[in-house]
Amino acid sequence: MSDNKNKELNNTSLSSSASNGRGGLAIYWNAFKTFFKIGAFTLGGGYAMISIIENEVVERQKWISKEEFVDLIAMAQSCPGVFAVNISIFVGYKLRKTPGALCTSLGAVLPSFLMILLVALFFHQFMDLAWVEAMFRGIRPAVVALIAVPTFNLAKRAKINLANCWIPIVTALLIAYLGVNPIYILIAAVAGGYLYGKFIAPTE
């Protein structure tokens, strides 16, 4: 009885979502607008966008859960292409399959494209200005903070503790000092997680 009621509630929710805003077009506009805002107001791009994407996608829009967001970052990192665009594609596809992915990826890319186009057009006119150089010197430390905060939050959600804290430390050392390709790290992590879940975890 409860299963039938849950199915009815899910169907009602999907129907109301599909019929909302001009035959469901509102969700596409909202997805595009959200990622356009993320792309337009994030300095540094890449990992600096994590906290802003999380705030918009997880906290405000509630399109995905916090656990899904952590998994999403792992998938985006393991796929070729721009990190932030990969995330936008995954979120858009979850919302409305391929059309949703097109909307979110376009929203994420368009601000950077327009900004770079303007910079290319007027670069030689302001590249030597002292205030421009000073502005970018001030931006760089802020970008470091934008990367550090979501990294700390992700570590908490990934359940990093004293037993497994050596994994991110060794990973960072391998990448920073030995130049190990992150793809190999991810493959090793997947294999290790599979073996642990299959052979070790059941005996604990």
UniProtKB/TrEMBL annotation:
One of its GO terms (molecular function) is chromate transmembrane transporter activity. It is found in: Cell membrane. The lineage of its organism: Bacteria, Pseudomonadati, Bacteroidota, Bacteroidia, Bacteroidales. This is Chromate transporter. Keywords: Cell membrane, Membrane, Transmembrane, Transmembrane helix. Signal peptide: none annotated. GO terms for cellular component: plasma membrane. The chain crosses the membrane at residues 35-53, 73-93, 105-126, 138-155, 167-196. It is a multi-pass membrane protein. Belongs to the chromate ion transporter (CHR) (TC 2.A.51) family. InterPro entries: CHR_Transporter (IPR052518), Chromate_transpt (IPR003370). It comes from the Bacteria. Its main location: membrane.
